[in-house]
Amino acid sequence: MTVISTTIGQSVSRIDGFAKVTGQARYAAEPHPSGMLYGVIVNSPIARGRIETIREEAARAVPGVVEIMTHLNRPHTALFEKSYVDGLGVPGSPYRPLHDGEIRFNGQPVAVVFAETFEAAREAAMLMEVDYERWPHNADFEVALHQKYMPEKPRSNYVPPKSRGKAAEAYALSPIKVEGHYHLAPEHHNPMEMHATTVIVEDDGKFTVWDKTQGPQAVQAYLTSALSLSKDQVRVRNPYVGGAFGSGLRAQHNVFLAALAAKMLKRSVRVSLTRQQMFTHVFRPEAIMDIALGATPDGTLQSMIVEGVTDTSRFEHNMENLVVWGLINYKCPNATADYKVVPRDTYTSSDMRAPGAATGVNLFEMAIDEMAYACSMDPLTFRLHNYSDIDAMHDMPLTSKALREAMLQGAERFGWQNRPMTPGKMRDGKELIGWGMATGIWDAMFSPTSARARLTADGRLHIATAASDIGTGTYTILAQTASEAFNIPLDQIDIELGDSTLPQCPTEGGSWTAASAGAAVWLACQSLREKLFKTLGKNSNISAWLTEGLRHNTVVLQDGFLKNTDGDEAFEMSLRDALSLTGQTELEVEETAKPGLRGTISQMRKARFTHSAVFCEVRVDEELGIVRVTRLVNAVAAGRIMNPKTAASQVRGAMVMATGMALHEESLMDERVGRFMNHNFSEYHIPAHADIPDMDVLFVNEEDTEVSPLGIKGVGEIGMCGTAAAIANAIFHATGRRHYNLPIVPGD
Ligand code: MOS
């Protein structure tokens, strides 16, 4: 008997890897329908004002140019109605591309040139002449600070901070105080695949939209409402996504403009953004956090006061859960937090890998390090001393929290016990060596999801759900789940994702897909097995052993065969034969996994988070101030790990991103024009291979039966939370100098 080697928990390599490395995986800008037009967007070079005149003669004279779409000639659709609400956007007055002649941000699309070739469209776009009336603008975060406000209608995922005790009084009375004014620079999304849309106008006039998105059904819903189309007129596909990290959560203007043009021109079109155009939107908000901590000399936190702001546009209210994390994660009798947003004349900031926590956890963990030192206490010991076993902000029990184990196991792996407490004590030649640590916390979520399981005449199992694999390994872990649930070898399974016509699945994001889609697939496979057995049981032509076995519940699926476990005769039958016995060409079920399934909690009676402990070694060149990260260890507690290989890759990817946050990534605003000026990889720095050391990721055993039916909490974003702080804290340990601004760059 062969043993299934592909079940949940095994390190299986990506099943989509071959398609990706051989170029068979198709991305949003790759389909090439016949007669397709290329659209190139013309962006506003001013931040605020009004279009006076648009002169198109030179552009229209370029051979191959078919149409130029502006606010003057674009068709009217529901998006331009006053009552329109962008269901994927954030509260406020939704951004409406090509709505009118008003300019609300630098980089705003003012025209889209469509031509038979990309080159013609680009040349014509450069020849467009637009005159503007300029109005005063402010793109300076510091200047806008006095306008900070709390939106009347917060974002739906916003968690309002909850105070406890008397934080101000307790702070005043605390013998030990630290106070820091922290800042995080804005950072831009730079996935390998940039935002792009190909709209294929099918023969019947329906649209097949290939879009770079994290949610095909969300984009379908967006397009049907924005363009007043019925659901069956729009199919959205994204079978492969070249990294997304949150920029694909909302519909970007390329998808609307491409679909609008397809409607106007009745032709297939493609609109893809350039790397530079990516820098006109999709950025993590700039943030300021003021953190004050009070403690007693024995290292017991007495008070936490956190105030934070992030930027948004003048027309939409983007919000983050920035200030709550420390209040949730640490035991401390007095705590309060306040959060506001700051309006600027820019595009709306957006979600980027662990939005809110990536900023809020890292900056807070830098403050905790400073407090540990103020109490002359080892930073790990300090955290263990102030450990909370509950969600301390909501005074709510947790489904699980193996952070203590993560801290201890991570410390052991790293060799933390050999760390001298005093900074600047370790050196190698001209390089100072520092060791720092921090902890991470991120939501563990589970959303209702449906999946289909179908057994076909060839004995193969087909799984389908509208999930997106944004590079995270979703294809692979869902195949593993199906393999375990149906007890069938991995190579007999086909997974179909990334298509709005498939069973309902929430947009990929928030690290909830593994838990949610995993549960749906598991459920569908269980249900398909029951259906198979039931259908066979109704059939009088099956052999005696099977009739008897089904009657006595002794028939099982094993390695893709039906077997009778009773009696000494090992009868077995292939799935193909079993299906043909049923007289049907295929058997299919669709199931929906909802909270409450299998004893998971259906209401917010408990709080649910993933946790991590990150340890870092840096070397700082004493003369040049150049920082090298030389070692990173991340111990993650995220429930059951479906695939240690892909999960560790997720965590590593986030750690790379966090290294960028700590040391490299910084979008710099030219306030005079209101545009991010370092809009390319020579000036916007991201970590390169040489910047990244060996990263050691370990998963701590954590049993959680309440977040999701399979015990999964999800990984990915957790790798972002804490890593930047561990690097900053290591730099302090190397140099004895505190930094309050990320990224930390030479010269700071
Ligand atoms: Mo998540 S913000 O979609 O990485």
UniProtKB/TrEMBL annotation:
UniProt cross-references to SUPFAM superfamilies, sorted A to Z: CO dehydrogenase molybdoprotein N-domain-like, Molybdenum cofactor-binding domain
Domain Aldehyde oxidase/xanthine dehydrogenase a/b hammerhead, chain residue ranges per copy: 22-136
Residues forming coiled coils: none
Listed Pfam families: Ald_Xan_dh_C, MoCoBD_1, MoCoBD_2
Organism of derivation: Gluconobacter frateurii NRIC 0228
SMART domains per record: Ald_Xan_dh_C
Top-level division of the source organism's lineage: Bacteria
Name of the protein: Aerobic-type carbon monoxide dehydrogenase large subunit CoxL/CutL
Lineage, uppermost ranks: Bacteria, Pseudomonadati, Pseudomonadota, Alphaproteobacteria, Acetobacterales
